[in-house]
Design goal:
390 residues, alpha/beta, Rossmann fold, four-stranded parallel β-sheet, 13 helices, 36% helix, 16% strand
């Protein structure tokens, strides 16, 4: 039996702690994201990398460091333990020796959103939540629909009305209730929040509940395990809501406390679209939170997030790691999508292509070096974006 060592919830802003048996969204005291904390001392004695050897190749292999308490609620569609591929042609093109792509596109519903939503929904079901809702640019809605169906719970998905048709077809087929909104994901979020305040459902928004980040952090555990517990020098991450970058950074702290890795950390590089780059602007201004981005526009729907509730956590991870935040244009994203497709046989989502688009600038400015081990986070598959390939 894999026992969860979850101990409490801690606010990432004010540091107040809460009982993990409570159904909570943001911190009741200050309105910032809540982060699950574990009994790392006890886990260190009982949970070692040796325990992973014969476990199923899903994210549940790290169950001791995940929040779900009971096996019956560890729903799965086979998510996680995605391949870490060496991309040698791409590396050669840029004069790099150790370039890897973590291919999240093979997750259920085609993106890394499966990780966060399986965890959030499993935990919500375990806590007795009866209905769910989520604002989404597409992929999160698909994942929420899939795992809500798996859990036998109703889910209400709010999407911008210009969402690509493939997402609508998928979400509909998975049984979710769809509402199209004239606006951006932030407008969808406002309607979801309103319904949650009226008691109609539980709000699954990015970092507005404590558990999506726990599913996303498993990318950090996997990268470490796949590289034999030696972390890369650099991780390049496409940033919308930023749960993944926050989660991966959290995973490294946990693994160090467990004694699985040392204190050396990768530089975390946050990539956004030039048409919606609030984190980049805040990074360049040296401030701790990001102002709302006006008139956000980009072909990478998952990067079209004008305001992120976890902005200060994203910026903290980037700065503590010695990383940077930078933006790339839509035309650079399209060119990079074609480049990784023709060079490596990977049809990737535009958000994922943004990591490839960042490489020339990072090299030019000396932020990455030819001998370093660099991981590109390929967050999703390109098949839902065929409207861009015409």
């Amino acid at each position: 039996m894999m026992q969860s060592y979850l101990r409490l919830l801690e606010c990432g802003g004010c540091g107040k702690t809460y009982d993990f048996h409570r159904i909570l969204n943001l911190c009741p005291a200050c309105g910032k994201p809540l982060l699950p904390r574990y009994d790392l001392e006890a886990a260190k004695q009982a949970f070692t990398p040796d325990h992973l050897k014969d476990r199923p190749k899903t994210l549940w292999r790290y169950a001791e460091m995940l929040p779900v308490q009971h096996q019956a609620f560890r729903f799965t569609l086979g998510e996680g333990f995605t391949p870490l591929l060496k991309v040698e042609r791409l590396a050669q093109h840029y004069g790099l020796r150790n370039l890897y792509a973590k291919d999240e596109g093979i997750n259920p519903t085609g993106s890394f959103k499966a990780r966060g939503l399986v965890m959030a929904i499993a935990r919500a079901a375990e806590l007795g939540v009866k209905a769910l809702a989520i604002p989404s640019a597409g992929n999160a809605g698909s994942a929420a629909a899939a795992y809500a169906a798996r859990a036998g719970l109703p889910v209400f998905v709010y999407l911008p009305e210009d969402v690509p048709p493939a997402f609508l077809a998928e979400i509909k087929a998975l049984g979710a209730q769809i509402t199209l909104v004239d606006g951006l994901i932030t407008d969808c979020g406002r309607l979801v929040r309103q319904g949650a305040e009226e008691g109609r459902w539980f709000d699954l928004s990015t970092l507005k509940e404590p558990y999506r980040v726990e599913g996303k952090k498993t990318m950090g555990y996997e990268i470490a395990e796949q590289l034999n517990w030696r972390l890369p020098d650099v991780i390049i991450y496409p940033t919308g809501g930023g749960t993944g970058i926050v989660g991966i950074w959290k995973a490294f702290d946990e693994m160090e406390a467990l004694g699985w890795i040392g204190g050396k950390r990768p530089r975390m590089i946050s990539v956004q679209s030039a048409g919606c780059a609030p984190i980049v602007r805040a990074y360049e201004q040296g401030v701790e939170s990001a102002e709302m981005w006006q008139n956000a526009e980009t072909i990478a729907d998952g990067l079209r997030v004008p305001a992120a509730v976890g902005d200060f956590l994203i910026l903290r991870a980037v700065r503590q790691s010695g990383g940077i935040a930078l933006s790339v244009t839509d035309s650079e994203i399209r060119a990079a999508q074609i480049e990784i497709g023709r060079g490596e046989g990977m049809f990737v989502a535009p958000e994922a292509a943004a990591t490839v688009a960042a490489l020339p600038r990072l090299l030019e400015q000396g932020y990455i070096h030819p001998d370093e081990r660099i991981v590109l986070l390929i967050t999703g598959n390109g098949l839902k974006y065929t409207h861009l390939t015409g």
